[in-house]
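How a chain folds remains the central question behind the approach discussed here. This step matters because it turns folding into a mapping between discrete strings. The sequence in question and its structure tokens are set out directly beneath this paragraph.
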Amino acid sequence: MSNTKNNTVSITNPKEINVIAIDDGFICLRGLSHKKLRFEVEYALGKGTTSNTFLFYNNENTAFLINPPGANFQEVFLPELRKIISKNTCQLSVVIGHINPNRISLLKILSLEFPKLKIICSNPAGKILQEIWNQKKPSQQNLSKKEDEEENNLQQVPPLDLIKQEESISIFDGYTLKLIPSPTARWPGGLIAFEEKTGLLMSDKLFGAHICTTAWAETNRSSTDEERRHYFDCLMTPMINQVNRIVEKVELLNISAIAPSHGPAIETSWRSLLNDYQRWGDQQSKSTIKIVLLFASAYGNTASIADALAKGISATGIQVESLNCEFTPASELVNSIKTADAYLIGSPTLGGHAPTPIVSALGTLLAEGDRNKYVGIFGSYGWSGEALDLLENKLRDGGFEFAFEPIKIKFSPNAATLKTLGETGTMFGRKLIKEEKRQKRKLTGGINSTKTDPALLALGKVIGSLSVLTAQKNEGEEIINSAMIASWISQASFSPPGITVAVAKDRAVETLLHKGDFFAVNILDENNYQKILKQFLQPFLPGANRLSGLQLIESPKKQPILPDALAWIEGSVKDRMECGDHWIIYAEILNGKVLNQNGVTAIHHRRTGANY
């Protein structure tokens, strides 16, 4: 396999295809996009993405295409494919895992160009594919009758070869594909393809990272660790039990490298990544609080909302169990509801109604759910939102208490909405943790032993300067910002000058502090910090602008600066380290200024190291 230097892409063309030779008659067609394709929360790092497709072909006009991209790559993908295989005579078999409308759009084009096309997929994927093959988004439902008939006449579902259990397919030239169904709540049609001669595991959505690179494989585990962890936190955490079962299966394979659909391949350190997946998942399983998240999603929009909420909840350390209602057995649904400490249920609106699986899940929740536990509802819609009205009315009439106002989003969420959704999830998690602590104090007579622990009392004598950390990214309508009071700040290096900042995982600003991001530390003056402190210590609703109403100046990197601060410094995030319930952010200092030469730094004194 090719193993070139792992370079992040910097290209003028927003999308292109990089052809990478893996073996004789076996290539990777890597779609490159240096900009994020959608507003899903997993793209938040803003480092672009890749879409990795694998092609086996020979001189007998037979080809196997593994995990083709979505229609957003069709303009660059199809010309490259046509250079390699003949569209008129080739027997093309397409092996596909996850199904969504974007992918189906490209499959439709392939089915027209390759009359002998056959689709190989899991049984659930086949069900989804047949359901939405000719389904139109709300914006497409105003086609004329003639256009509609022409569209349907051309778009017949190709022959399907359904994989119901692990199965090996001998293709040609000694290549053998082992196909492993790998269903999860997010992708019930998941299908992993393992080529036995080369040892390449084509893992589809698992083990991915949204980063645009030209190289075949990452240089080492640390080079993409942040991107893979972010991808895991956004997508894998709510279904970690399902993911762990898949990891246990693939560990038994004779793997040489893992090639996911997104990001570079993992060669020398793939076993380390599998161990990380299990370790990261174990952190959530230790929580004593669990939220069950029930959803169905027609176009992926409701699922994107679910991902953002789940990531916000998980930041508080609470366990989230995600269930796709269309593919969850009734017994599993009942058990999850009975053992959960709170409930989330989300639905799209299709033709003015909620999908049947959601209606059934709602009935189960009404029958088995505990009215003393919080509930929250969410969903997307096109022209109306009857499904969400149904959920709200039934649950309110059923006596459930809502943790937050129903979330109703037209079409797909944007960057600001995703930030609000994450903060809503965090608020929900904090509410449950507060309730649990209140119950524990009630049982112990209100005694909190940690506050009198001698070591924690001593730790409380460690002091820091009172500051306001501000961060901002994106431009125009996509601009997002946040801020927090910070006192766990320390100089970390002289050359280059650098600092470390400890940021709790559930802080809203944490999502703006990844490698490459900029931020500012506004150091407060002991003579005038009270008013500023009051501004930032007040409770903020999800999505609220923490800098609203303030007179601000701008740093060279366009970070918000408080003119009443004693001094400010501006940093660029270079590294992050996970430390318990906090992230340690290391940043190099780029700019700074003392605003009051006669001022004195405000100091944060604590009674105990048990809290701020």
Summary: Residues 15-204 form a domain with the Metallo-beta-lactamase; Chain A fold (CATH 3.60.15.10). The chain has three domains: 15-204, 287-435, 453-604. The two ends are 51 Å apart (CA to CA). Residues 1-12, 140-147 have pLDDT under 50 and may be disordered.
